[in-house]
Design brief:
With 448 residues, this protein is of the alpha/beta class. The protein contains 21 helices and 13 strands.
Length: 448
């Protein structure tokens, strides 16, 4: 099988390739094509992959190209991990929002909207090209904002595009470990949108173990989300929120922490990755060691400001290990290619799963996966507090899709103004003007 990675010069690609190296079964991926618009980045990543494959006789062959059509032809799976505007764009998204006193995170709030407005047109064009050049390919989307981009691509690819995220997987594993449960034996009741979901149950042999966790303050304080949100709030919700809900539940504190930080997350990653790619131009630089050191620093500083606000301390060693989205992607490919039925938490079209949303709305829920793709399983209705957030954020996503499709300035302003973390139509208008000033590519948003 051939896997094409769009954004193949991206920093996290070695995680995906490393997961493929452990798969030796019939029907595995045998060819990987890396596509990127930056040839230097492709060379750097190809060097890392080359060292990863050292000594492995059946390692997937790797080809790197800047020709998109060449990359797509013959693909069985397309892994999309592009970043429109690069980390420079992310840093600008964060700064414009923080200057207006609102959150600029790349998937949540104003920053996520700006990123979506830039990314959706590119993702749609990719979807159209995939439909033309690789109509039988399955598309695995990791491009952020993952739920929004998956929904945009699904309008052209239908159910052949599936969004993935490592946050629900990580949350489920952490809770299972705290409860002394084998994560592979646990069934997780999780529901919401990408970066806006709640774990409502963790079942082992038909028994829900979550009430045991919620009743034990010591256990609640022993893992990431417990420290982020606090035991009292988790017991009040009766569920464990995705870590990204910290931006909603503690918004003022998060905004203040990010305003006071020496640099934004995007600026930090931009400098860090520029350093990595610069070092990789030295032929004497050890590729895998250079990459791994950079990855470890990246993971250790993830959501550092949120943890500081909550007094949560450093991340656990187990959370710094790989095994997140790359393992989800591998499990998804195995299930589809080999008809190995499995259950994964994925971003797929709603159908009739959540009655508060229409059939085409992309949601993040447990799915049954086999050769026919991923189908959401039936879940209990959302509680009212979740209905409000999910409905509001889906309305924002639809406004972003409208703006990207029509070039409507009014739709773009509506997207900002309707978001729960943007509290003013006036601020929404200023945000759009600010983003149009720093992102010339948004100049098409000039229609009424």
């Amino acid at each position: 099988m051939k896997l094409t990675i769009l954004g193949g010069g991206g920093f996290r690609v070695p995680l995906v390739y490393g997961a493929l190296l452990g798969d030796h079964a019939e029907g595995r991926v045998t060819h990987v094509t890396l596509y990127d618009t930056d040839a230097d980045r492709l060379v750097a990543v190809a060097r890392v992959l080359g060292e990863q494959a050292g000594g492995i006789a059946d390692a997937p062959a790797v080809v790197a190209t800047t020709d998109l059509d060449e990359a797509l032809r013959g693909a069985d799976f397309v892994f999309s991990a592009i970043r429109v505007g690069g980390l420079e764009g992310r840093a600008a998204d964060e700064r414009v929002a923080l200057d207006e006193g609102v959150l600029g995170q790349e998937t949540v709030g104003a920053g996520g909207i700006a990123y979506g407005l830039r990314t959706v047109p590119v993702a749609v064009e990719l979807a159209r090209r995939i439909a033309r050049l690789a109509p039988d390919a399955w598309v695995i989307n990791f491009t952020n904002p993952a739920g929004l981009v998956t929904e945009a691509m699904s309008r052209h690819l239908g159910d052949r595009v599936i969004g993935i995220c490592d946050s629900p997987v990580g949350l489920g594993r952490r809770i299972a470990r705290v409860l002394g449960v084998d994560p592979d034996r646990a069934r997780i009741d999780y529901v919401g949108l990408n970066h806006l979901g709640w774990l409502r149950g963790l079942y082992v042999d038909g028994r829900d173990e979550l009430p045991r966790l919620l009743a034990d303050p010591e256990l609640l304080g022993s893992f990431e989300e417990g420290r982020l949100f606090g035991a009292d709030w988790l017991r009040s919700l009766g569920a464990i929120p995705n870590e990204y809900l910290h931006y909603y539940y503690f918004n003022r504190e998060a905004v203040r922490a990010y305003q006071e930080a020496e640099q934004t997350r995007g600026a930090f990653l931009r400098e860090q990755q520029e350093g990595f790619y610069t070092r990789m131009k030295d032929p004497a630089a050890p590729p895998l060691t250079t990459w791994d050191r950079t990855r470890a620093e990246r993971e250790a500083t993830y959501m550092a400001e949120n943890r500081d606000v909550a007094g949560a301390g450093a991340r656990e060693e187990s959370d710094l290990e790989s095994g997140g989205y790359e393992q989800v992607a591998l499990a998804l490919m195995r299930a589809v290619a080999r008809n190995e039925r499995t259950s994964l938490i994925l971003n797929v079209r709603n159908r009739t799963t959540l009655s508060v949303l229409d059939a085409d709305a992309v949601i993040e829920v447990p799915c049954l996966v086999d050769a026919n793709g991923a189908r959401p399983v039936a879940v209990d209705p959302l509680p009212y507090h979740a209905v409000g957030l999910v409905s509001a954020v889906k309305a924002v996503e639809r406004a972003v899709l409208d703006a990207a499709d029509t070039g409507s300035r009014a739709a773009a302003v509506r997207a900002f103004a309707l978001h729960p973390l943007v509290d003013s139509v006036t601020v929404a208008r200023r945000l759009l003007d600010g983003y149009m000033n720093v992102h010339p590519g948004l100049g098409h948003l000039d229609k009424p």
